[in-house]
Write a structure and sequence with these properties.
The protein is built from 4 helices and 7 strands. It is of the alpha+beta class and 156 residues long. The protein has a 4-stranded mixed sheet with strand order 2-6-5-4. The chain starts with a strand and ends in an 11-residue tail after the last strand.
């Protein structure tokens, strides 16, 4: 089994394995209408990714974040930076959302690991809820993840 991490806002902490947000809004690696569970290889990357996508609010208005430790089967395909398309770091997602279309339509593995655009030595882990092993993904830990004021200084 492999441990991965998922950072989510307090209002969603009751559904840490839900793919509804990615289904409704899409993400870098999935289009709207296709839900996947986004997790990270390290809890720190989860925080970095969450803050990068946080709305332009003052520090005092940041939501409370929870970090969930997830245990999953080691059925995962790792992509290196060299295997990714030239546009993998684009600010718009229209091209990256279709790059995994074959896996999204018919997952041959539970998860894929893709280097983070923000810190490419760590991985974003996408778990496919339609894969037969998804039912074996378990929450093994959860705790509040405070955001240190120094990480938000100068933003607002």
């Amino acid at each position: 089994m492999l441990t991965v991490y998922r950072l989510i806002r307090d209002k969603y902490r009751g559904e840490p394995l839900s793919v509804e947000g990615s289904r409704l809004f899409g993400g870098r690696w999935n289009p709207k209408g296709t839900g996947v569970l986004y997790a990270t290889s390290t809890p720190e990357l989860g925080l970095i990714e969450s803050l990068a996508h946080a709305p332009g609010v003052r520090y005092e208005e940041l939501p409370t974040y929870w970090v969930f430790s997830l245990e999953m089967p080691e059925d995962i395909r790792y992509f290196s930076r060299e295997e990714l398309p030239d546009y993998w770091q684009d600010e718009t997602y229209d091209r990256t959302q279709v790059w995994l279309s074959q896996w999204l339509a018919k997952p041959d593995q539970l998860a894929v690991a893709i280097p983070s655009v923000l810190f490419s030595l760590s991985y974003n882990i996408l778990l496919h809820h339609g894969h037969s092993l998804f039912g074996q993904v378990r929450v093994v830990g959860q705790e509040i993840q405070p955001v240190d004021r120094r990480l938000w200084r100068g933003r607002h």
